[in-house]
Amino acid sequence: MKVLVSAASRHGSTDEVARAIAEVLTESGISAVVAAPETITSLNGFDAAVIGSAVYYGKWLDPATKFVDRHHAEFVGRPIWLFSSGPIGDPPKPDGDPTDLPTLLEKTGARDHRIFSGRLDKHRLNLGERIIVRGVHAAEGDFRHWDEIRAWARGIAEALTPVAAGR
Fold first, then answer.
1. pLDDT value, residue 8
2. What CA–CA distances, in Å, run from 11 to 114, 119, 136?
3. How many Cα atoms are found within 13 Å in the side-chain-facing hemisphere of 17?
4. Which residues are registered as beta bridge partners of 2?
5. How many angstroms separate the CA atoms of 130 and 116, rounded?
6. 167 residues of the chain, pLDDT tens digit each
7. Contact between residue 45 and residue 74 where contact means Cβ atoms under 8 Å apart
8. DSSP alpha helices (H): ranges in 28-145?
């Protein structure tokens, strides 16, 4: 069983979520490969995929949506999971699903989609992003819930275990 874990990340937080998911899969005996969506040319050799993106302005980042567009035909017959990263604060804001989620679910046939809180480090932002963050009074900090992320990844591993065992 070989699983692709691919995520689009602007400042690294979503990449860290993808690596944590891959770690859990690996600990469960599943081969997990982490790769940026723009580097994937084919899903050949992968039995399943976990695809994610940071969410900005209510949408997935272009590298992730373009990945889905390029490979939508290859998702057929493969178990797919999606995750989004981005809400910050306590309680997390903004709430709700990304606006492009219905299209992403349709193109991937994903079994599940999960939203995970993100991280905001103002020092990593460009000038335009800092202005927006200041304007909306966004809370700085790391709001990711690692136990929740790992539990979701364990659920994926459990779902794939019967597939790996040929059951």
1. 97
2. 20, 9, 19
3. 33
4. 31
5. 22
6. 999 999 999 878 899 999 999 999 999 999 999 999 999 999 999 999 999 999 988 899 999 999 999 999 999 999 999 999 987 767 777 778 889 999 999 999 999 999 998 777 767 766 666 666 666 656 676 778 899 999 999 999 999 986 555 54
7. no
8. 62-71, 101-108, 127-136
Tokens (6 digits) for 163 = 């597939």
Alpha-carbon span 160 to 27, nearest angstrom? 13
User: Pick from 147, 121, 163: which is nearest to 29 by CA?
Assistant: 163
Backbone φ, ψ for residue 129 (5° rounding):
-65, -40
pTM: 0.87
Q: Could you give the CA distance from residue 140 to residue 87 in angstroms, rounded to a whole number?
A: 11
Cβ atoms 40, 66 nearer than 8 A: no
Domains of the chain: 2-164 (3.40.50.360)
Q: Where are the alpha helices (DSSP H) in the chain?
A: 13-27, 62-71, 101-108, 127-136, 146-164
Asked whether the beta carbons of 35 and 25 are under 8 A apart, the reply is no
The answer to whether the CB of 18 falls within 8 A of the CB of 147 is no
